[in-house]
Each structure stands twice: as structure tokens, then as C-alpha cells.
Amino acid sequence: MEISHRPRRNRRTEAVRNMVQETRLHPHQLILPFFLVDGEGIKNEISSMPGVYRFSIDLALIEASECAELGLKNFILFPAIEEKYKDKYATWSYHPDCFYLKAIAAFKKHLPDCTVITDVAMDPYSSDGHDGIYQDGVILNDQTLAVLGKMAVAQAQAGADVMGPSDMMDGRVQFIRKALDDAGFTQVSIMSYTAKYASCFYGPFREALDSAPKHGNKLTYQMHPANRREALVEAEHDTFEGADYLMVKPALAYLDIISDLKSYSHLPIVAYNVSGEYSMIKASAEKGWVNEQAAMLEVLTAISRAGADIIITYFARAFAEYYRNNNA
Ligand code: PBG
Hints:
Elements: H1 14-20, E1 30-36, E2 43-46, E3 49-55, H2 57-69, E4 74-79, H3 99-110, E5 115-120, E6 133-135, E7 138-140, H4 141-158, E8 162-165, H5 172-182, E9 189-196, H6 203-209, H7 229-241, E10 245-249, H8 255-264, E11 269-273, H9 275-286, H10 292-306, E12 310-313, H11 316-326
Parallel strand pairs: 1-3, 1-4, 1-12, 4-5, 5-8, 8-9, 9-10, 10-11, 11-12
Antiparallel strand pairs: 2-3, 6-7
Ligand PBG binds near residues 119, 121, 123 and 202.
């Protein structure tokens, strides 16, 4: 038999395979999430996310410095707020005593070379557990923007480099951009959660922050998992409203959306490899059903191959350690 084309030639040796490899990941492309709580000396593991902790600021800084030494220098911070500080309008989010604002300042002070990305959304501070102001079963879009603007300015004042609006209100990128510019923060960026889907994969995150909706669901603001073109509608708006990065969230069940946004836009594309995606791998690895490190590498590579320039992942430190040990 005569075979004229033999693609296996390009897989023959390790050196050849390395040479033809199309996608390569570096720790510089990763962002590590931190769940922060008020207090001192706290490092509590989240039961649904083995290896992920709620940290008080002091211990978070130690963890973050170790990450920075591994070349992992981008952090996205999420606050777990005590119930007594939550209210209908998330006013604690921009109160000067809010520990989250102090945490942002502490990160910038101790790790000035690192990127501090914040979460701009009401849900951690909302007594209704929603990303917008909830009234009689409805999320009030335009009234919510005013809260987001104050929150963003407070976070910028605390020293944050990048704002991450994760709320999915209409017009928020433009509103936050203007609020930041008016307050003099023209250098603070916006990493918009452009295509954020109403996903079951956020389950462990909501446990970590105790931020699940108290009533209803998020379907009137987060996107329906069945929709693809709608992601481009959001991308168009975010681009013209002044976003510096476009994000797709979750990542794994949405690789087509990542690919679409990459072809649509010249902005950096971010993918959020969310809590449930992390926990699935952890749980099956604990049972011995998949190899954890191999699953991590395959999943992160696939997200990158689909078009993500940057990945937010709870595996960021594990990847950075793997990279140091294998890329001498
Ligand atoms: C809410 C927010 C969520 C996540 C990040 N910001 C959850 C939600 O929308 O209910 C999820 C992240 C994850 O699951 O890792 N503003």
C-alpha cells in the first residue's frame, strides 16, 4: 500500500513534537483568584474546592508572594462579607471601613509589581444575593449602575489596577469607565465579564462567598447557555463602551464562545475557568478516575487553544509550580 501523506512524522520524537506544538502556556498568562475574609491568621479550606482557601489579608499576602516568586503575578480578589454588613444596596462595598478595600491597598503595598484585579458586583454585599438591586422580583439595571460606579471608584482609590465587572448589567462598562475617568483614574483598566452565562458551575464559588441568590435566579442578567451570537452582541457593546479586556465565563463548556470572541476582537480575550470546573477535576482525581495534573494541563491548554490569551484559574499556582519544575 502506498501512503503519500504521513502526519505521524511530525509526532516522531519528543523534540519534533515540541517543535510543532501550537499552543504553549506561561504563568504570566494566568490569574489566580483569592477569597478574602476579614480578620487575621485565617486560612480555611473551602469544602467544595479542595486546595482553595478563604484567607485573611495577612496570610493571603504570604501566599501571593510565594506565587509571585513562581512568576504568577496577577490576582483577582473576591470578598466574603459577613451577613451583618449586607444590605439591599450593597453600601458596604464602598464604605471606607470595608476590609476588601484595605485588602486591595495591602496587596498593592506589599506586591507593587503585581496586578490587582477586583470584583465589581453587588452580590457579595447584597442581602438579596443578587448582582443588582432587587425589587419585587426585578433587577433594577440603571439604579444598579450608580452602585457599581461608587464601588469601582472606591476600589480604584484603594489602588486596584483592573476592575472586573461581573454583574452583567447593561451599560456598566461605559458607566464605570466614566466614573473612573471623572475621578481621575484614567489608567485603571476594565476587564469586562462580557459573555457571562447563567451556569451551574458557579456552585462552589457561591459556597465560598456565601453569596447565592436568596430568591429567584440570575437568568434576567446572565446569558442563557444556549446562546452563541448573543455573546457577540455583548462583545460589541463592551468594546465600544471602552473595555480593555473581554471575558468569557465559564470556560470549558464555552470554548466556541472563546473562539468567536477571539475572531471578533483584537482586545485580549480572558477565559474564567470557574469553580465548578476546578472542583470536577479535583473530585474525580480524588476518586482516582483521572490524573489531576494531566487533566489540569489538558484543560488549560484547550482553553488557550480555543483563543484565550489569559486564563483565570484556581489551578494557577499548581500550573506555575509545574512550569518551574518542567521548563528549566
Ligand atoms: C458574581 C460572581 C460569580 C463568580 C464570579 N463572580 C458567581 C455568580 O455569578 O453567581 C463565579 C466564579 C466561579 O465560579 O469560580 N459576581
